[in-house]
Specification:
The structure is a single chain. The chain is α+β, with helices and mostly antiparallel strands. The protein is built from 5 helices and 3 strands; from the N terminus they run ααβααββα. The chain has helices at residues 5-10, 13-23, 28-37, 45-57, 81-106, and strands at residues 26-27, 61-66, 74-79. Strands 1-3-2 form a 3-stranded antiparallel beta sheet. It starts with a helix and ends in a 7-residue tail after the last helix.
Length: 113
Amino acid sequence: MFYDRSQLMRGTLEGCILKIISEKTTYGYEIMVSLKNKGFEDISEGTIYPLLMRLEKQGSVSSKLMSSPLGPKRKYYTITEAGKWYLADFVKSWEEVAGAVDGIINGKAGGGK
């Protein structure tokens, strides 16, 4: 039996999406391309848009329809203050978990510190 990588990736996507949006106001397709360029090769629009809707519903991002240089208007996303707090908490939690896992996998005492 092989490890299902998608389960691990799914749990980290919200934080990664918030990080991308925190760097600039952007739209769904651009977020997907950025994720693919950073190693989430299997990501699809069917994964991204439900997460964006959830982040918007919880108040972590806001959206606005804006003109596009090509084609119809696009929904652009901006991180909110609540989203910045959520992102900071995600980063702290990720660093703790990643350090612990690295410590176990690579045999480093103290969680890789």
